[in-house]
Write a structure and sequence with these properties.
The chain is about 25% helix and about 25% strand. It has about 190 residues and is of the alpha+beta class. A five-stranded mixed β-sheet has the order 5-3-4-6-9. It has a four-stranded antiparallel β-sheet with strand order 1-2-8-7.
Length: about 190
């Protein structure tokens, strides 16, 4: 099922104010001098629902998974290509954390200040205690663009990957752990 999309590709932030979490994303990007384009759309909760958004954006949307270990003492934000399947066993072995599962909405709110469906690398703006470990699939780093939500799943941004890796992440104090996940499940 696809979402209804405003077929306009906007440059920069919206003219009308948005919710505070989204505004903080635009403020940070603007302060860093990071150019971005934006598509507005209905709430999107799955990669499959974002096909129309990707078409207008001209970039694939990244899959963002908020994970935790069994004890719920370590938290991970995994960025990976949207169409790539995810199997925890491949990731667990690479990061030395067995029994990964999806973190609860409560942990997501407490650590990233986000609601389910709105997670993205920009949510790390809200991780003031730096409790979330950033993991990035190596394949994603080969893309020219990163498609991600501005902490709200009713807009999607297209940001140059080099701006993410060379400006945004260093500004936030994150050095991602690069992982390699298979293209197809076994």
């Amino acid at each position: 099922m696809s979402v209804s999309v405003d077929p306009v590709l906007y440059e920069g932030r919206p003219a009308q104010p948005r919710e505070p979490a989204e505004e903080r994303c635009y403020d940070a990007l603007d302060a860093l001098g990071v150019a971005y384009r934006r598509v507005d759309h209905e709430a999107a909760f799955t990669i499959e629902a974002c096909a129309a958004v990707e078409a207008v954006l001209g970039a694939p949307i990244c899959k963002n998974l908020f994970l935790t270990n069994r004890q719920q003492t370590e938290f991970f934000l995994l960025l990976m290509p949207g169409r790539k399947p995810f199997k925890t066993k491949y990731l667990s072995a690479q990061i030395g954390s067995a029994r990964l599962s999806f973190a609860s909405p409560e942990h997501m709110r407490a650590l990233l200040g986000l609601e389910p469906g709105s997670v993205s690398v920009l949510g790390l703006l809200n991780d003031r205690e730096r409790r979330v470990h950033l993991l990035v699939d190596a394949a994603l780093l080969q893309d020219e663009w990163l498609g991600c939500h501005p902490c709200r799943n009713t807009s999607t941004l297209r940001i140059a990957m080099h701006d993410v890796t060379e400006r945004i992440l260093p500004h936030l104090g994150y050095a991602p752990t690069v992982v390699t996940l298979p293209d197809s499940p076994e």
